[in-house]
Design brief:
Elements: H1 18-28, E1 36-37, E2 40-48, E3 55-61, E4 63-65, E5 68-72, H2 83-90, E6 93-98, E7 101-109, H3 112-125, H4 128-136, E8 143-148
Antiparallel strand pairs: 1-2, 2-3, 2-6, 4-5, 5-8, 6-7, 7-8
């Protein structure tokens, strides 16, 4: 699917529950309610589903470094990578909402050196990521770098 054909404006949101409540609050308040979640910054990542061609929106904890946004594909320590990560490896163009700002970005998995450098930053922000890493073994949790393109 060509980037111009992607419907970034009408993504599918999470199933009913706390994640959907978070996304709805974030979107309806332009991030005023939802950007900070349990005291940590979150963004909304919209990916193109590799199977259906629909766009899917996911709230994620993030860090920022020199204008790049960093997220972890932890999936709470599940044995498989989360769907959003599998989607962006197939289609690396994504859409972000960070607070009130909405923009496209290019996603890539961090190199081993970048992952090592940023892991401590991510776990300092959200210590449970260390628990996720232990639970996910032998799966290595990917760190994703999102670089703005517009």
């Amino acid at each position: 699917m060509h980037a111009l054909d992607v419907d970034w404006e009408h993504p599918t949101d999470p199933r009913p529950g706390p994640r959907l409540d978070h996304v709805r609050a974030y979107v309806t308040t332009a991030g005023a309610d939802g950007h900070l979640w349990h005291g940590v910054p979150t963004l909304l990542l919209t990916t193109l589903d590799r199977d259906s061609g629909r766009t899917l929106r996911t709230p994620l904890i993030y860090c920022e470094d020199t204008g790049r946004h960093l997220v972890l594909a932890s999936a709470y320590g599940a044995p498989e990578h989360p769907r959003w990560y599998r989607n962006l490896t197939a289609h690396p163009e994504v859409r972000l909402q960070v607070g009130a700002a909405c923009f496209t970005a290019q996603a890539r998995t961090a190199t081993p050196g970048e992952r090592e450098m940023y892991w401590e930053m991510m776990t300092a922000l959200w210590p449970p990521f260390e628990d996720d890493r232990a639970a996910a073994r032998p799966r290595e949790i990917p760190l994703v770098i999102l670089e703005r393109t517009d």
